[in-house]
Amino acid sequence: MKTVVIEDIRADNDYGLIVQMPEEGSVYQEDYFYWKGSSIPACFQTNRITTGTMKTWHRDPVFQKLEYHDDYEKFVFLSGNALFPVADTRDGAVCAGSFRVLRVTPGTEVLVPPGKAHFMPVAEGDEPVCITVVCPEMPFYHVYLDEETRAVTKE
Q1: pLDDT per residue over 52-66, tens digit each?
Q2: How far apart are CA 112 and CA 140, in angstroms?
Q3: Domains of the chain and any CATH numbers
Q4: Cβ(109)–Cβ(67) under 8 Å?
């Protein structure tokens, strides 16, 4: 089985994701509410937009199946530290050597561009990961790594 070292997600990255870190964004607060605006607009190909809530739990961080879409998909990580698998695709297949697992902390927003392979994050610890997902109604396409790959921490 292959292994890949878990990386902390970064706004200035070379893996093709648009990222807003928890400390970024505009905040407005009054005595009974707090509003944090996103600095990541998404220009979807349609106006039929859907939202959903994803909740994932801890499991052995081994990945092989990924998916990609023809449009953007936005993830707002609300709680729990997530291990988020991503890879580049070309001609409906994962590009060799592009697979990464990113540690994403609560408050981070990630815009996944069309064609970028990803899959459901795994909770890094005992706290479940909760995510709000915003995207158009669209199909998904499964792609697979050549072999199962385990995410490991850097020693």
Answers
A1: 999 999 999 999 999
A2: 13
A3: 2-152 (2.60.120.480)
A4: no
Distance CA 129, CA 110 (A): 14
The pLDDT assigned to 11 comes to 94
In whole angstroms, give the CA distance from residue 122 to residue 28.
31
Amino acid 24 reads: E
Q: Which of 1, 133, 113 is nearest to 60 (CA)?
A: 1
Contact present, 57 and 121 (Cβ < 8 Å):
no
Beta-carbon neighbour count of residue 145 at 10 Å? 19
Give the count of alpha carbons within 13 A of 15, CB side only. Answer: 23
Instruction: Look up residue 31 and give its two tokens.
Output: 């005595």
Cβ(85)–Cβ(17) below 8 Å = no
Give the pLDDT of residue 99.
97
Structure tokens at 70: 């023809």
Q: Tell me if the pTM is above 0.85.
A: yes
CB 60 within 8 A of CB 149: no
